[in-house]
Design a protein that fits this description.
The protein is α/β, with parallel strands linked by helices. It is built from 11 helices and 8 strands. It has helices at residues 23-37, 54-61, 79-89, 108-118, 134-149, 167-173, 183-189, 213-227, 230-259, 267-299, 328-334, and strands at residues 6-16, 38-47, 68-72, 94-97, 121-126, 159-166, 194-199, 311-312. β1, α1 and β2 (38-47) form a beta-alpha-beta unit. α9 runs antiparallel to α10.
Length: 335
Amino acid sequence: MSTPPVDCFVSVVSPLSDDADLVVDYVREVTDVLRRSFVNYELVLVDDGSADDTVARVSALLSEIECIRLIPLSRRFGLETAVAAGLETAIGDFVVVALPDSDPPALIPAMVERSRDGHVTVVGVKRTRAGEGPVTRLLARLFYWYCNSRLGLAIPENSTYFRVFSRQAVNAITQIRDRARFLRVFSAEVGYASVPFVYDVTPRRSQPRRRSFGSAVGLAVSIVVANSTHPLRVASWLGFVFSAANALYMVYVLAVYFVKERVQEGWVTLSLQNAGMFFCLFLFLAALSEYIGRILGELRTRPQYFTLEERNSSVVIANAGRKNVTTKADMEMRA
């Protein structure tokens, strides 16, 4: 005996970026899961400036599959911004974020059920970091340790974008207007309870896309700088320590000058002193530059993204007699 659909509204937000090779199968799989599991549902697909025919393939499905909304952005703004655009337009009581190339749609009902139990955020945590090198895994562990123990960001180790938000959590997250948007940080920032959901990532490509080492380091630096002044304080303290060391060295030089008749300073001591001073100077300048850049970015008043249009399914849902169209009244009602 099949389980009847749950009487709640579930939105699934999925960012797309050059996903023409898998988007059709993904859409069919997600909508099949939603159709069997929930009375009301929608699939919000945000295209992040795809250069292939991703938009065309999704558009062809709008006359075939119900409850799809396609939002193409005007250019590529990045994964975080695409997810934010989807969250801002989703109207569900519970909103799922799922990546088409790695997150299994079959787990959505179980994750939503856990969120319904207490209106908590359910955070996907991948079981392993298979396929990554030992250096990458070590640096990842150090990053999570630093964020959680020193910065207080409360980011679960190995957490992913696959997660479920209650309407209350979505409303809180969309109020954050930071230009540097990091979903995993915002999930903890809003303060609502969260529970981990351990799962196995299921790549839809034989060669999964991975961030390069440089982009991963850049992302880690951006997350830290955007959410804490700790690195700047560390640089300041190092500057103080080296300044104090140089002051002691000056006292030592004066003492030697007055005590000894013939003074001949060694080049090793002088070299070490200069090296320490310049190390401190460059470290401080690097940290200061990151924060100045972040401040200038936040001072911009431009919108965070621009959309080209919104396309909706033209398939009418028989039992509800409605189309999957979002109106301003819908948004106000659910806010």
